[in-house]
Specification:
The protein has 161 residues and is mainly α. It has 5 helices and no strands.
């Protein structure tokens, strides 16, 4: 059986990948923006059109199923999925404040919160150390940056990052 860290990394990849894959398959059907088009005091959108309720809801469901396939409680997967989506929404909010457009690249900011928050959320359950959390987060960053161009080439992502 794979190490706990690799299994958590797999769940984090599922959580972050499902919204992208569903968007490629479904297009705009059911893609209601989480921010409802609202703007912050700076006049910019809170999150942007790429952050949808569809993705926010499907990621925890998929990670819950993924956890069950790993013989873990579904709740562990759901927690990973919810925390990954919160990290993704936080990244989006910060990117909008920095003037980065929707789906624009912000190295580190695009990857770290959506891996770090889920790992912190389950650290107590698995007894994860700070170095394990840092290494697993770094592993996600490398995987994300490596897989994105492949997903773009396959027509699943709109941009190669």
């Amino acid at each position: 059986m794979a190490s706990i860290e690799l299994q958590l990394l797999l769940l984090i990849l599922i959580a972050n990948g499902v919204p992208i894959i569903v968007a490629a398959v479904c297009g705009h059907r059911g893609a209601w923006p989480v921010d409802g088009g609202r703007r912050w005091t700076d006049g910019r959108r809170l999150l942007g059109d790429a952050k949808t309720w569809r993705g926010v809801m499907l990621a925890p469901l998929a990670t819950g199923l993924g956890a069950m396939l790993l013989d873990w409680p579904a709740t562990v997967g759901v927690v990973v999925g919810v925390a990954a989506m919160l990290g993704d929404l936080l990244s989006s909010f910060i990117k909008r404040r920095l003037g980065v457009p929707t789906s624009g690249m912000a190295l580190g900011l695009d990857q770290i919160p959506e891996a770090l928050l889920p790992l912190l959320a389950v650290a107590g359950v698995f007894g994860l150390s700070g170095s394990t959390i840092a290494a697993t987060t770094a592993g996600f960053v490398v995987l994300e940056l490596s897989l994105s161009p492949i997903l773009y080439w396959l027509g699943i992502r709109n941009r190669p990052y």
